[in-house]
Amino acid sequence: MPTPEQVLEEVKDPEAWRGWVGQVGRVVLVLVIAWLLTRFTKWLLPRLRRSIVRILDRRREGVTLDLEKRAKTLSSALRKAINMVVWTLAVVAALKEFNYHVEPLLAGLGIAGIAVGLGAQTLIKDWLGGFFLLLEDQIRIGDLVVINEITGVVEEIDLRTTVLRGENGAVHVISNGSITTLSNLTREYSYYVFETTVAHGADADRALAIIEGVGDEIYGDEKYHSLILSRIEMMGVDCLGDRGVILKARIKTLPSQQLLVGRELNRRVNIRLKAEGIAFPQLLPPQVR
């Protein structure tokens, strides 16, 4: 270890200063190159993604929206992995410029990694879960999913966590290793399940005909036709409830478009049933205690 006198002599030496300035300059150059590489990756991957989607779309190898979501999910994960590798190499190169031997550090990290790994089984489980989510294409960014009874739109998929945005704006961060049930509501196509209750004395057959007519009307509407994959499917009288007759139907749409179509279906059916005099169940009077 150098003595204070030796350090002071080195500080006064112009050659030492030139060496230090050279080291700092090289470190800055390494960090700038790493930053430029990450910016280039951020610029390149979206363009590469769009090109791949166009090629696959011309070959008819899937629905365009599905291809876009798949490509976006993979490019996001790939960009994070590239950034991590680039900055790791940049830090190692910077340490070497300051004559810091990284080999003992890496060896120490290897030994420590074995010890930490024994207590990091949950983290490894999360990483494996995220890896298979991406590999098996179970969900993509933009999908509407239900994970462990939590509903939301997928905003981000990492190796460790999946991020959902709920309808009320809440952000749900779920560890991939803790996922036990997963339902994808927007894979290749979606269904909007329509359900309404009419009074027991109402004409159920007439109500079903009105619902079917409204469904056909929306299917022929220029605004919604491109979002709907097939005409409304009437499921009929689902059951007889205490308050009335429950009618059910469903309509097949493009992925993630079922709510937009379903809300318009609800609005038009409500107007038409009221105009036709189809009665809804009466509200139960409040119980007096």
TrEMBL record:
SUPFAM superfamilies: Mechanosensitive channel protein MscS (YggB), C-terminal domain, Mechanosensitive channel protein MscS (YggB), transmembrane region, Sm-like ribonucleoproteins. It is a multi-pass membrane protein. Keywords: Cell membrane, Membrane, Transmembrane, Transmembrane helix. Residues 122-187 form the Mechanosensitive ion channel MscS domain. It comes from the Bacteria. It is found in: Cell membrane. One of its GO terms (molecular function) is mechanosensitive monoatomic ion channel activity. Belongs to the MscS (TC 1.A.23) family. PANTHER family: MODERATE CONDUCTANCE MECHANOSENSITIVE CHANNEL YBIO (PTHR30460:SF0). This is MscS Mechanosensitive ion channel.
